[in-house]
Amino acid sequence: MDEPSSRSSDDTPSRSAKRASTHALHALLGERAAVCRRAITGEHGVSLPPLIDHHVHLHLIDAGLLARGGIAGVVDMGGDPVALARLDSRGIPRVAYAGAFLTAPGGYPVGRSWAPPAIAREITSPSTHPGVHGGAATAVDEQASFGASVIKVSLNSAAGPVFDRTTLDAVVASARERGLPVVGHVEGEGMLQLAIDAGVDVLAHTPFTEHMGRRLTARAVAAGQRWISTLAIHDGDPESADRARVNLAGFAAAGGQVLYGTDLGNGELPVGVNQAEVAALDAAGVRGAALIESMVAPWPRVEELSGVSTFVPGPQPADLDDVPAWISAATVVPSEELIHDEN
To answer: Residue 109: is the preceding peptide bond cis (ω within 30°)?
Structure first.
């Protein structure tokens, strides 16, 4: 006579296989990845929280294509504050924005062919008093009045004049008073040191014009600085690409907070998940759950976007090397459409 099975009634081979599959998925992508299917089509795949591109320029792209390419939210890092304030705050992609670049007279991006005058404000005075023409506080107040969630400063000595320390300090102090983080476009010798000394909260690009070194990296991490990746924009410039990769690898290894961002609108980049950017992050050691976290972090919001999820159709990735190609098939769907497998 056969011995009675010790397996509980619900511990079927199928259920055990599902548990093993879920365990493997979590090991690759973190606890928030889930096996699911779409209620309408029955298509199977994996769900993730909404993906965000933390560096785009909406006036240079067709934002209507982002959702089908897997991007549910964006942070516009330099645009006309009047036009940005008119966007539908309930639509997809959900948009947070910096408003105009704040820059020194004649500084980047003033005069660039892609940068209409409305997207830059030249600060001529370090005044922190509201209403002073060309003053630091006046420029910050303008962006805040149009709904900016962050303030962006241009520290690009490779392309033109930059703020002196007094003016930069005034911009940062004015933003702090309004509870707004400061994002810096940092490019050129000494600009990274300036940004860290002044307390810039976020770098719009991984530093690519100079090597960080351990001391500056440690200071950036200790200050809680975040870096937006934008590694793939250096395709065709091996030296900049290598410096950015090494800098980001050191920053991430030291505990720095990395945000996925592409600088979408800068050249011929895909509107949606950028496989090259994901692969570059992976190569810099931002892999698996850390990679997913960089893509779903709601910054500058505190809470994640509601009502929508990421859906990646088909089988889950077999290993970490498969993730960049796998996630490039992502799309945005209503969360209520997804049925998660029980296990």
So the answer is: yes
Alpha helices (H) in the chain, listed in sequence order = 13-29, 81-85, 136-145, 165-177, 191-198, 213-222, 238-253, 275-283, 288-296, 323-327
Q: Which of 208, 258, 217 is nearest to 237 (CA)?
A: 208
| Model pLDDT, residue 343 | 58
pTM of the model: 0.94
- Rounded CA separation 45/28 (Å): 15
Structure tokens at 284: 């810099």
Q: Is the peptide bond before 181 cis (omega within 30 degrees of 0)?
A: no
Q: Give the model's pLDDT for residue 21.
A: 77
Q: Is there a contact between 51 and 313 (Cβ–Cβ < 8 Å)?
A: no
Strand, coil or helix: 241: helix
Structure tokens, 174: 């004015």
Q: What would the pLDDT profile of 260-312 be if each residue is shown by its tens digit?
A: 999 999 999 999 999 999 999 999 999 999 999 999 999 999 999 999 999 99
Burial-class residue 254 by CB neighbours within 10 Å (0-12, 13-18, 19+). middle
Confidence of residue 23 (pLDDT cuts 50, 70, 90): confident
Q: What CA–CA distance (Å, rounded) separates 289 from 299?
A: 17
For residues 104-124, average pLDDT = 96
Q: Map residue 3 onto helix, strand or coil.
A: coil
Q: Please list, in sequence order, all residues whose beta carbon lies within 8 angstroms of the beta carbon of residue 150, skipping any fewer than 6 positions away.
A: 75, 96, 97, 98, 180, 181, 182, 183, 202, 300
Instruction: Give the pLDDT of residue 203.
Output: 98
Q: What is the pLDDT of residue 12?
A: 54
Residue that the structure tokens 């997809």 belong to: 92
For residue 324, the tally of other CB atoms under 10 A from its CB is 22
> Three-state SS for 82?
helix
Residue 220 scores a pLDDT above 70: yes
Look-up of token digits 């077999």: 318
Q: Which helix (H) or strand (E) holds 96?
A: strand 94-97
Residue 119: CA atoms inside 13 Å, Cβ hemisphere, count?
22
- Give the Cα separation of 266 and 277 in Å (integer): 13
